[in-house]
Design goal:
- The structure holds three protein chains of three kinds.
- By secondary structure, chain A is of the alpha/beta class.
- Chain A has two domains: 210 residues, FAD/NAD(P)-binding domain (3-Layer(bba) Sandwich); 148 residues, D-Amino Acid Oxidase, subunit A, domain 2 (D-Amino Acid Oxidase, Chain A, domain 2).
- Chain A is built from eleven helices and 18 strands.
- The chains are: A alpha/beta, B mainly beta, C alpha+beta.
- Chains in contact: A-B, A-C, B-C.
- At the A-C interface, helix 1, helix 5, helix 7, helix 9 and strand 16 of A face strand 6, helix 3, helix 4, helix 12 and helix 13 of C.
- Strand 16 of chain A pairs antiparallel with strand 32 of chain C, so a sheet runs across the interface.
């Protein structure tokens, strides 16, 4: 039986201070797998753990296992630039990501785990009058769909980010921007840990170092999985392994509209606060924020060739550094401290896939490209709904695998049936 | 960055090349809708070797077919494809 | 190695000090008796120098001023220069008296990960907490000025790249060079020698310094490139490495040219990694106090920098090498208070020599350092008994960690050496060969031989004759033997785990690691992320193994079972400026200019970026607004004539007997029946059936076509053309070339256009016809195509002759009462005529049907995108489809506005292009994409722009406002 979750609070921490912090229990148990679960979730990233949590919390499905081949949160959950926002252009993306953003807003309290969700704003820069018109269109689209957005003048942008290069002669001069004030960042690892702890408290088995090696299908129906810890039976098997979706889906004989590409990111050495919002630009494909620890967090375009190597090309990092300095010249003497890459599930319209597969009782959540982190709570919420009820939640109904054959693709970047850079 | 032995130009930096698509992803305009959808929207996407089409976009502009390992990045086979330049 | 003839003045926290050439900031300050150099990240504990190189976690300073200010600079890796200004960090009001040190008092309440457990209030409260946390976090001050100096990138190629110029690296470089290989030798220090600068030896009968000088001279003679102050930061695929060469020190003003740093992109045949090893600290209470120093670092300060880091030294070790520190310090006049050796047995000659002189204890382990801003003693347990000793220096050696970073970055495997407590390089995957201390070779002769072997192997693997390889140098040194390390990672009884620092910079203690383990953060990555172990600016160089070992002990497993976090570039932190090189600021992206750029620039028009191009938006008269100028120019085109630069359009020439068959793949419209000398409108699809671009197709000759596309499309089209040519239809007899920059082009439009063309001596072709001719002996091509809705011509001329043509046209136009016009007018004309545009209506998500192009599709298919069009969702009548809008009140319609049926409703579509009627009414019109648009003509909608606070009532109409019969352009 799972132990009761000990509350985290300032008072509890104070008590811990007097007993050498000896009484903190494990944040989540380390159970051995049982023979059978109602739902087996393959993949212990943020999405899989969130799915387990909402299955137990919202739908009362408590015989749930999350199988993680390595350590939870070790895939793209722990490798992104931690940006959270819902300022997309297409209504399907807006509806889904706004559902997610609303969940983010109460999540630290709900999970009793400080995710350091920081609504410092997500700022898109405009570099010409026509950029500003496109940003106005985005803002109009968001506002008419009930999502926050604010058009900022050049002067307002300069006040918000005093270190931006505001020179009219800049290669991409800043004309203004569009900010989503409710956007921001969160502590990525904490999302996995917080969901794991909360799911565990509801009875979910979070099983690490348990790699799925096969999917058992009998008479066209999924009945369980083979793992490095033995066979596990299940009513429903939920794939949730973005980055590796093709590999796991192949165990059930499926071929997906996904290629795995590398996305790199890096952080600088920590310094005192210098950038207080998330900066993005459509002309310059880099994004900049500063972590609570003081590191400047930078990302850009993916490497754009298939790879599972987790080793990116240096050229991309150099390009992002140049773009970042171009926007914020004072970054030049900061030093890159760590650089890493993640394997992203690049879907062929740029949108995620959440729903049923052609194999009965086998479900898929993947294809996140490089936008999965912000969607974590929403993804778990709608995937849990789909798994519990057998039908999609309205917010993920458009994101089924069948959309590629039907033509109802969700092409936010408008760049067609290829892994996309934006 | 890879060192790609362009069959026309010799070994050149990856910076000169563009990954175009997996070889299995060629959709012919005269194909059936089923063939087209399979080519456009399904991939084996293996973790090991796969045949890929690359283009020497910032060099001779020729097309290259290569068998490349998607984890180690070893290029095991490489050859020119397409029309004669 | 320090030049005492000349002093160098520098400041630290505003106080002036003097050092000497060859000094690091750390050595110069130590020589002045300054031991307190920094404060830690979390508890603000006083910190001194721990190391003598790049692994330093504590002594971090801010250096330089303005656009040269570099925070978090290691004092041990900063060679002083005249005028150096350094300031301590993360303290207020001063380094000596730091209010933040109060955090030490509440340390028990803020263990690892405390922030995950608290501040869980409502979001607004977290905002306040976060503000405080952010101010407290961060190490150095944030830079606030733009870069003062230059950075550049260079590429290089070599047979053998040798990383590190210690004894192994030099031996390797010599062996490879002598065999005939082209060698690059990279050394991160300011001079060659590595460990030879620290430990005296005789090599080939020469003193170490003379031997280094001779080796350097020999390498240069053999053509090797020697790069000092150059760090190999990353080992990437296919033996490409990035090196960072520091041309000046942090904060220092460069010489002429202003070059601060250079990034080398080196492609090597083989790479000898002779990066050495770094010494590990030891876990005991207050092991972070100023005066606790690595044993080899203490020796470096004494030998290389001529600074005695303490007068009364306590040596704590688990190996023989630290005995050498004892002997060296004693030789310089220090008292060796005690040698505390954790091993049960130590009987090498060096141990015996030291024991003869000093009090040395076996089975002896430190419990605590005493003193606060400087150590004044220590307690230890010796065979179960506690002793106290006094001293002002604790030189520690917890064993050695080979620097396997590059090996691992290159995909190499690691082996584990249990006695040494060290990961060593295992099987390589690329061209890497580790040598010397980086391969856990110990003892100078062994290291030299290993280096020579590695250099020879590298050369012979590349086909150079190893027969000519040179013998390894012969070394003579007092203690030429392995270190006999016996790694023991558990702490001594009595150690206060809350002040036993594993990661000093991030203040991660042994207690923090234990707490993380108890709470279940037991994977090495969870441990790292939960406690921040190894995530400080030293990247865990000294802390990693200690942390792993503690985790392994808790788990009851071995260190290799627990595993290691992955090493990724950079080896040491690298400035973003160096990464960017020249490609930032104005050179961040290319800037493309049309052949008429200087003609336009002379008129100082407002520019519009279009991709990388710059195009004039209008040519305002003095005092005239942009909008007014655009309107005037557009009206002038409608009423008389105008001309505009359209050189940026995509232009492709397709030649060959199979050109038509080739174009039939590209174009979704009929191609075959196009007569020579005629053109027609066309559009292209993406493979998913979406319209990707439009343009015109012209048949110049039997087997020669010209295809135009949008400016943006010009960058996409070559890939499509090439794909069809080489992959879909490689058998076709056809060739194509982009002639976008070969040909410039000017559009002449308006009722007077034909007269203007005639005035050049050219016969105006009929609509969608073409003529060839010459103007002033220059060849031109005239195409009769209209974008504006007026009679219009596109005149193409070679790019270098376009300026002359433009001037001739300008004269002709002016005499007709016409004008030059820019993009604003082009847009107004296009919108009123209802022409779709790539980037507006052609937004990448539209089928031909959506854009009312269905009837132009080639029925037989066979073009790219045809099969995908059969999908059901692409024929859904509820799709967004192309229609026109007119403002009910005549007011301007906001471009980008959403189309609503009621005020609070969800959008049914949006305004893609907004313009005005040019019929004198000036009424607001627009093009739009609207759900089921063509079925809703006459419906009234709200064009809502809440982001701009504007709502306009609009009526859905046909998109063609101007001359719907299409008579004007045919005249």
């Amino acid at each position: 039986m799972p132990g009761a979750m000990k509350g985290y609070s300032a008072l509890a921490l104070l008590k811990g201070g007097f007993n050498g912090h000896k009484s903190w229990p494990r944040a989540w148990r380390a159970p051995e797998p049982k023979a059978f679960y109602d739902v087996v979730i393959v993949g212990g990233g943020g999405h899989g753990l969130a799915t387990a949590y909402y299955l137990a919390k919202v739908h009362g499905v408590r015989r749930v296992a999350v199988l993680e081949k390595s350590w939870i949160g070790g895939g793209n959950t722990g490798r992104n630039t931690t940006i959270v926002r819902s300022n997309y252009r297409l209504p399907q993306m807006q509806t889904f990501l706004e559902l997610s953003l609303k969940l983010w807003e109460g999540l630290s309290q709900e999970l009793n785990y400080n995710l350091m969700f920081s609504q410092r704003g997500a700022l898109l820069l405009g570099h010409s009058d026509s950029d500003m018109t496109r940003l106005a269109e985005l803002g109009d689209s968001l506002l008419t769909n009930g999502i926050d957005a604010k058009r900022l003048s050049r002067e307002q942008v300069a006040r918000l980010v005093p270190l931006l290069d505001m020179s009219p002669d800049a290669r991409f001069p800043v004309h203004g921007g569009l900010i989503q004030p409710r956007g921001g960042t969160a502590r990525h690892d904490a999302v996995a840990w917080g969901y794991a702890r909360a799911a565990d408290a509801l009875g979910v088995d979070v099983i690490q170092n348990c790699e799925v090696t096969g999917i058992d299908i009998q008479g066209g129906k999924t009945v369980g999985v083979q793992t490095t810890k033995g066979a596990i039976g299940a009513d429903r098997v939920a794939i949730c392994v973005a980055g590796d979706s093709s590999t796991v889906a192949a165990m059930a004989g499926l071929r997906l509209p996904i290629e795995s590409h590398m996305l790199q990111a890096f952080v600088s050495e920590p310094v005192k606060p210098m950038i207080n919002t998330v900066i993005m630009s459509r002309s310059i494909h880099c994004y900049i924020s500063q972590s609570d620890k003081g590191e400047i967090v930078l990302g850009g375009d993916p490497d754009l060739y298939p790879s599972y190597s987790k080793r990116g090309i240096p050229m991309r990092i150099e390009e992002v550094a140049g773009q970042a300095i171009g926007l914020v010249p004072a970054l030049s003497r900061l030093r890159m401290l760590r650089c890493w890459s993640g394997v992203t599930d690049m879907s062929f319209d740029g949108a995620p896939i959440i729903g049923k597969t052609p194999v009965e009782n086998l479900y898929l959540n993947g294809g996140w490209c490089y936008g999965g982190f912000k969607a974590t709570p929403g993804s778990g919420f709608v995937y849990a709904h789909t798994l519990a009820t057998g039908a999609p939640h309205p917010a993920n109904a458009p994101f089924g695998l069948e959309r590629f054959a039907s033509g109802a693709t969700i092409d936010e970047a408008a760049s067609g049936p290829q892994p996309q850079s934006r | 960055m890879f060192l790609i032995a362009c069959p026309h130009c010799g070994p050149r930096s990856q910076a000169e090349f563009v990954y175009e698509r997996a070889e299995e992803a060629v959709a012919y305009p005269d194909g059936t809708p089923q063939e087209t959808l399979a080519a456009l929207y399904t991939r084996a996407n293996p973790r090991d070797f796969a045949w890929e089409l690359w283009r020497h976009a910032y060099g001779c502009r020729g097309w290259i077919r290569m068998r490349r390992h998607r984890t180690t990045h070893e290029i095991a086979e490489i050859e020119a494809v397409g029309a004669r330049l | 190695m320090i030049d005492r003839d000349r002093g160098i003045a520098f400041t630290f926290d505003g106080r002036t000090y003097e050092g000497y050439p060859g000094d690091t900031l750390a050595s110069a300050l130590l020589a002045q008796g300054v031991h307190l150099m920094g404060r830690s990240f979390k508890y603000h504990r006083p910190r001194g120098v721990m190391a003598a190189g790049v692994e330093e976690p504590n002594a971090l300073v801010g250096v330089g001023t303005g656009g040269r200010f570099e925070p978090n600079t290691r004092a041990t890796d900063l060679f002083i220069y005249e005028g150096l200004k350094a300031v301590s960090q993360n303290r207020w009001p001063s380094l000596g008296l730091d209010i933040g040190a109060a955090n030490s008092l509440i340390a028990r309440f803020i263990p690892a990960g405390f922030y995950y457990k608290t501040f869980i209030g409502p979001p607004w409260l977290w905002k306040i907490y976060e503000h405080v946390i952010r101010q407290a976090a961060g190490l150095g001050a944030a830079p606030n000025a733009a870069e003062a100096d230059a950075f550049e990138h260079r590429a290089a190629f070599c047979d053998v790249l040798v990383v590190g110029s210690g004894p192994a690296g030099l031996a390797a470089a010599l062996a490879a060079s002598e065999a005939g290989a082209r060698v690059i030798l990279a050394e991160q220090d300011i001079r060659l020698g590595g460990a030879l600068l620290r430990d005296p030896a005789t090599l080939d009968g020469l003193s170490a310094l003379d031997w280094i000088a001779e080796a350097e001279a020999r390498l240069k003679t053999l053509g090797a490139r020697i790069l000092t102050r150059t760090t190999a930061m990353g080992y990437y695929d296919h033996n490409q490495l990035t090196l960072i060469e520091r041309r000046v020190e942090a904060g220092q003003t460069p010489g002429p040219g202003g070059l601060a740093q250079r990034l080398w992109r080196v492609r090597a045949g083989k790479v000898v990694i002779a990066a050495g090893a770094s010494e590990r600290p030891v876990l005991f209470s207050n092991n972070d106090r100023p005066g606790v120093m690595l044993a080899q670092a203490a020796r470096s300060y004494r030998r290389r920098f001529g600074v005695l880091p303490g007068r009364r030294a306590i040596i704590a070790t688990n190996n023989d090498d630290a005995y050498r520190t004892a002997l060296d310090l004693a030789e310089a006049g220090a008292e060796i208070v005690a040698i505390l050796d954790s091993r049960p047995l130590a009987d090498s000659p060096i141990c015996q020599a030291a024991r003869a002189k000093f009090r040395a204890h076996l089975d002896a382990r430190l419990v605590a350092a005493l003193g606060s801003k400087r150590v004044n003693g220590a307690t230890a347990v010796v065979a179960g008994r506690t002793i106290s000793v006094e001293g002002d220096l604790i030189a520690v050696s917890g064993g050695f960690t080979p620097l396997v970073h590059l090996h691992m970055q290159a995909g190499g495997a690691l082996d584990w050496n249990d006695a040494g407590g060290a990961f060593t390089p295992g099987a390589g995957r690329q061209g890497q060969i580790s040598a010397g201390a980086a391969a856990r070779r110990e003892g100078l002769s062994e290291v030299l031989a290993d280096g020579a072997r590695a250099g020879g192997e590298a050369a012979s693997a590349l086909g150079f004759r190893s027969g000519t390889a040179r013998e390894a140098p012969i070394a003579a040194t007092a203690f030429d033997a392995p270190h006999h390390t016996l790694a023991r990672f558990e702490t001594a009884p009595g150690v206060n785990l809350k002040t036993a620092f594993v990661d000093t910079q991030n203040d991660v203690t042994a207690a923090d690691i234990d707490l993380a383990w108890r709470e279940g953060y037991r994977s090495v990555e969870h441990l790292k992320r939960y406690t921040t172990l190894g995530m400080a600016t030293d990247q865990g160089k000294s802390s990693n193994i200690l942390g792993l070992a503690r985790l392994a002990a808790a788990e009851g497993r071995t260190v290799p079972e627990v595993g290691l976090t992955t090493f990724r570039p950079p080896f040491t932190p690298v400035t973003l400026g160096a990464l960017a090189g020249e490609a930032t600021g104005a050179d961040m992206a290319p800037l493309r200019r049309t052949p008429l750029f200087s003609v336009h620039a002379a008129l100082s028009p407002p520019w519009q970026p279009v991709g990388y191009w710059q195009r004039p938006r209008a040519y305002p008269r003095p005092g005239e607004s942009l909008a007014a100028a655009g309107l005037r120019e557009a009206l002038c085109v409608r009423q008389s004539v105008g001309m505009t630069d359209i050189s940026t359009l995509g232009k492709f020439e397709i030649v060959g007997p199979d050109a038509a068959a080739f174009l039939a793949r590209i174009c979704a419209t009929p191609v075959a029946k196009l007569a020579v000398g005629r053109g027609r409108y066309t559009f292209m699809l993406r493979e998913d059936g979406m319209v990707v671009d439009d343009g015109t197709l012209w048949r110049l000759d039997e087997h020669r076509y010209l295809l135009t596309s949008s400016t943006g499309g010009a960058d996409r089209m070559p890939a499509l053309l090439s794909y069809v040519r080489h992959i879909l239809d490689p058998g076709l007899k056809v060739a194509f070339a982009s002639v976008q920059e070969r040909w410039g082009a000017v559009a002449v439009a308006g009722p007077g256009a034909a007269a203007v063309v005639r005035s050049l001596g050219l016969e105006p072709p009929a609509h969608m016809g073409l003529t060839r001719g010459s103007v002033d002996a220059g060849q031109v091509l005239v195409l009769a195509a209209s974008y504006s809705g007026e009679r219009a011509f596109e005149i193409y001329a070679p790019a270098h002759e376009l300026t002359d043509l433009w001037r001739r046209l300008d004269t002709a136009i002016t005499s007709e009462g016409g004008t030059t016009y820019g993009l604003e007018a082009l847009e107004l004309l296009r919108i009123e005529k209802g022409h779709i545009e790539t980037g507006a209506e052609i937004d990448g998500r539209r089928t031909p049907g959506d854009l009312d192009l269905q009837r132009m599709l080639r029925g037989k298919g066979g073009y790219v995108g045809a099969p995908a069009l059969a999908r059901p969702a692409l024929t859904d009548p509820q799709r967004l489809r192309f229609v026109g809008l007119e403002a009910v009140s005549g007011a301007p319609i906001p471009e980008g506005a959403m189309l609503l049926t009621k005020a609070a409703g969800r959008p049914h579509g949006h305004v893609t292009s907004a313009g005005l009627r040019l019929d004198g009414s000036g009424a607001g019109i627009a093009l739009s994409l609207l759900k089921a648009g063509p079925e809703r003509l006459g419906e009234t909608l709200i064009a809502a722009s809440p982001s701009r606070g504007r709502n306009v009532l609009v009526r859905v109409v046909s998109p063609v406002f101007h001359d719907p019969e299409g008579t004007r352009y045919r005249e």
